[in-house]
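A further point concerns the way the authors explain their paired sequence and structure data. Since the whole study asks how a given chain folds, the encoding of that fold should be made plain. A single example would do more here than another paragraph of explanation. An entry of this sort, consisting of the sequence and the corresponding backbone structure tokens, reads as follows:

_____
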Amino acid sequence: MPDKSNVVKLPRRAPEPDSAPPPAAVRAKPGVIDQALAYWNRIRAGRPMPARADLSPGDIPKLLPCVILMDVLHEPLDFRYRLIGTEIDRICHRNYKGAKMSELPDKRSPNPIWQHHQEAVETRAPVRRALSYVGPDGDVMRVEHCVLPFSDSGKTVDHLLVAVDVERRL
């Protein structure tokens, strides 16, 4: 039986109380964040963080549409979009592949997305948060992401895998 003492679990936030029933909705990939977090825990194998070399797209084919892979640039801190899943690309204003977050007015600091990425780099731990969506897709009801750090040295975060859960109106 695997040792679970080193597993990182992040709590889900309780839904806001609401008097009206929510509109019918569908998620792009149910449980994408929990699946990504479980995968990250598995490949880190007891280390503080997995290395980028531990990440194999073949291990997570069903998650690929809902993830973003980012390079972490240091001095000054910045984040470069390396790979963007098709579900994420659908809800974005434009194709961000190759762009730095600092070059994007709606993504650079002090934007909450930037802050979540920075928190994952500084704490070297996953960061799970709900996001406000202001993109072009009017059917998006809710977005949540989990920023997962990767380190080739075991100390400095070099890459981030961001799992994104998108809930849409039916």
Notes: DSSP finds three helices and six strands in the chain. Helices lie at 32-44, 86-91, 112-123.
